[in-house]
Amino acid sequence: MLTKDKVLEALSQVIEPDLRKDLVSLGMIENLVIEGKQVKFTIVLTTPACPLKDLMANACVNAVTKLVDPGAEVQINFTSRVNTVRQNSDVLKGVKNIIAVASGKGGVGKSTVAANLALSLAEEGAKVGLLDADIYGPSVPTLFGISSAPEMKEIDGHNLMIPLEKNGIRLLSIGFMMKADQAIVWRGPMISSAIRQFMNDVAWGSLDYLIIDLPPGTGDIHLTLAQQFPITGALIVTTPQELALADARKAVTMFRMQGVAVPLIGVVENMSYFSPEDQEGKRYYLFGKGGGEKLSMETGMPLLGEIPFIEAVRAAGDEGINALGQNKVYTEAFAKFAGNVARQIAVKNAGVSSRLK
Ligand SMILES: Nc1ncnc2c1ncn2[C@@H]1O[C@H](COP(=O)(O)OP(=O)(O)OP(=O)(O)O)[C@@H](O)[C@H]1O
Ligand SMILES: [Mg+2]
Tens of pLDDT along 263-279? Predict the structure, then answer.
């Protein structure tokens, strides 16, 4: 007999692989309806970009058909409630997770990774914002092909900047307020104050993820953000070669410093190999091999992705068009990485230790 109790009992045998508890006690099963042989329910994921959702769905179907009724027709819908450890905070109230993208070395692809991570998470259905915190060398205007300035609006007595929107992402960059060839020549305190305004005086609204594209190095901008804002975690971007690793190690040290203490989400190796469009499957290791893995081993951070160097991605960045979907190898590697990031954050927020290495 198919009853709600029996179905729930069966589903309580299905374990969420990352959170290591069963779906029923995690409150992940909702809207259970039984009509004849039809069993319908919704799985509430901790992130829409959950790479484990098919695995969990299969396990649920198996549990119901094996433990309750072999003739059951199981229909599963998915929804998500991105988890957060931020509560009752006055700062960026509606923002569930703040992710900083850093590297140490310049030019390794932070901005490209930050932009495509934002796109990838938004495509999965998450509410995403992207703040270009590289005041000296903003990249978001070029990457998204935007040259208009954001508007100001009075909201609840505060004069706030309204982020621009493209591809479903809320975007803000100092580059939106400058001419393309204009340079910023500011001292440290002005930079810190600009960063604070970009975080506090902006109508970010409710966001699952606010991604921050940091400048290279370990300077005022990093310290202001790390010390004054509750960063959920930092992602470290490196390329495979030793020169980039050396700088990435410095970034790791900074985030781990006393008084900074920003949790590290993991490392992503960008430009891992060059894969020409006309030689499918061929990989050229232009910058060496295994740098990301080495950094991961040394620091104990998981390696969340190895992203190929693809000509079409460089071109898309220069032309301000969406790089995802331009090239299969890149898009697949990137989707895997973005899924790992979302998963890693969900695990951190749940207070469980990570299984990703
Ligand atoms: N995986 C990739 N495939 C092809 N080109 C890439 C890839 N990643 C980044 N690039 C290109 O490399 C250049 C540098 O990337 P990007 O601006 O993202 O680096 P960055 O680390 O943000 O640099 P900076 O330190 O100056 O802020 C850009 O032209 C970008 O289009
Ligand atoms: Mg950059």
Answer: 999 999 999 999 888 88
